[in-house]
Design a protein that fits this description.
2 domains; Glutaredoxin; 4 strands; Glutathione S-transferase Yfyf (Class Pi), Chain A, domain 2
């Protein structure tokens, strides 16, 4: 049985959706951020960075949400969460998943935690610049979805990258121009929320509407 350490709506959401897609047996373990439990000695033994999520798979302990998604895709090939190894489609999958985690997610962290980078006087400016850059990134993804015939990020095939994209789009819901306001991304989000696995993950974490 997998153990997924989580806090509702955090970076655990994408791996959680994938666990539902796979139909794997798993247990959620709450890490209460409101009590700073991610910095507790017990949790730091699992993830010395003090960040959520962590996946425990037997003797294997993984952190970094994208790494967990890749592991689940590889561990359960029958679920078809990623294209075939060695294929051009697999390379595209890597490109988009890494873009989402290294570029979009990194910028979202600046948006949510600008005070980590500067004093209070400069934090508002950092936040505004981050929101502008995130908008440009969402426009790029919007153009990708519009150019393809298929409904998903890779075209016709659902992949782990779609769960990751949904998670990050949800984080933009409080922005002036959130992901849902773009036609293709709005359609994508509606489609993703119609999937039973997504609904199961949101219900399991106790996430209420508005979802994005």
């Amino acid at each position: 049985m997998y153990l997924l350490y989580y806090y509702p709506g955090n970076a655990n959401l994408a791996p959680h959706i994938l666990l539902e897609e796979i139909g794997a047996e798993y247990k959620l373990v709450l890490v209460d951020r409101s009590q700073n439990q991610q910095k507790s000695p017990e949790y730091l033994k699992l993830n010395p960075n003090g960040r959520i999520p962590v996946l425990v798979d037997g003797g294997l302990v993984l952190y970094e949400a994208a790494a967990i998604c890749l592991h689940l895709a590889d561990r359960h090939p029958a679920a078809a969460l990623a294209p075939a190894l060695g294929s051009d489609a697999r390379a595209e999958f890597y490109k988009w998943l890494i873009y989402l985690t290294n570029t979009v997610q990194a910028e979202l962290l600046l948006y949510f935690y600008p005070e980590r980078m500067a004093d209070a006087a400069a934090a508002a400016q950092i936040k505004a610049h981050a929101e502008s850059r995130i908008g440009e990134m969402l426009d790029q993804i919007e153009a990708k979805l519009a150019a393809d015939a298929g409904p998903f990020l890779l075209g016709a095939q659902y992949s782990a990258a779609d769960a990751y994209l949904l998670m990050l789009c949800r984080w933009t819901r409080g922005m002036h121009h959130p992901a849902r306001t773009r036609p293709q991304l709005g359609r994508f989000l509606d489609m993703m929320m119609a999937r039973p696995a997504t609904q199961g993950a949101f219900a399991g974490e106790g996430i209420d509407a508005p979802f994005y």
